[in-house]
Amino acid sequence: MSVAENISSLRSQLTEDVTLVAVSKTKPVSLIREAYAAGQRVFGENRALEMAEKHAQLPEDIEWHMIGHMQTNKVRNIAPFVSLIHSIDSLKLLQEVNKRASQNNRTIPVLLQFHIAQETNKFGFDLAEAIAMLESEPFAQMENVEVHGVMGMATFTHDENVVRAEFQKLKKCFGLLQSGIMSGNSQFRIVSMGMSGDYEIAIEEGSNMIRVGSSIFGSRA
Ligand SMILES: *Cc1c(COP(=O)(O)O)cnc(C)c1O
Asked: Is 91 helix (H, G, I), strand (E, B) or coil?
């Protein structure tokens, strides 16, 4: 199947409220162009320099989403154009995003990444840490970032019950923040969860943004 066929088959499974992020990491610009020609406008990358290089070669109306763990010294490379950073996992990173956004006279939308998986090599906050950050004085000072929701990755396992329980946990954290510290903030509405192997479960559990790579572009080396 071609990239265009994969995208249209995925789209036919999605309701309008679910945003498809096409994860193009490691894939050549030529394949991104194929997806673009099929109408796809939102692309996800996990490395800042790779994203910046691709951004420079591709149409300006693409929305670039950063989905991977970021080092603070790479934020400046994407700050001029990135549409959404899914992978905010520390106050320090968020402060750097705020600083670089300000230097570019813009506001950068972000998601808070939650650690929901069993693997310890995955990044993210737990609920108490996220609330502590959102209540902190440094956060109150930030004028150039907007928190639009949450993101999480489930454990890499074939056990559907484990994956489902982790997605339920993320959705619950989202709900508690939405009705708590983020209440009154209508921009706080994104639940980014679900990849090629588990997006169906994620949508059943309340995802409204899925990040799909290999099911669109083929497996990665
Ligand atoms: C690579 C990646 C994806 C996409 O994974 P696939 O299994 O290829 O769909 C989604 N989210 C994150 C954070 C990723 O790093």
From this structure: helix
Q: Is 194 a pocket residue for ligand 1 (Cβ < 6 Å)? A: no
Query: Distance between CA atoms of 70 and 76, rounded to whole angstroms?
Result: 11
Q: Which tens digits make up the pLDDT trace of 172-218?
A: 999 999 999 999 999 999 999 999 999 999 999 999 999 999 999 99
Task: Grade residue 3 by pLDDT with cuts at 50, 70 and 90.
Answer: very high
Q: Is the pLDDT of residue 11 over 90?
A: yes
CA distance 8 to 30: 18
Nearest CA to ligand 1 atom 6: 213
| Tokens of residue 190, six digits | 């994104």
Q: Which atom belonging to ligand 1 lies closest to the Cα atom of 196?
A: 9
Centroid of ligand 1 to alpha carbon of 211 (angstroms)? 6
Measured CA to CA, the distance from residue 134 to residue 182 in angstroms comes to 9
Return the axis-axis angle of helices 3-11 and 29-37, rounded to nearest 10°: 50
Backbone angles phi, psi at 97, to 5 degrees: -60, -45
Is the CB of 202 inside a 6 Å radius of any atom of ligand 1? Answer: no
For residue 25 and ligand 1, the question of a CB distance below 6 A is answered with: yes
Q: What is the DSSP string of 157-198?
A: -S-HHHHHHHHHHHHHHHHHHHHTTTTT-TT--EEE---TTT
Pocket test for ligand 1, best of 20, 42, 195 (most atoms within 8 A of CB): 195
- Expressed in angstroms and rounded, the spacing between residue 155 Cα and the centre of ligand 1 is 12
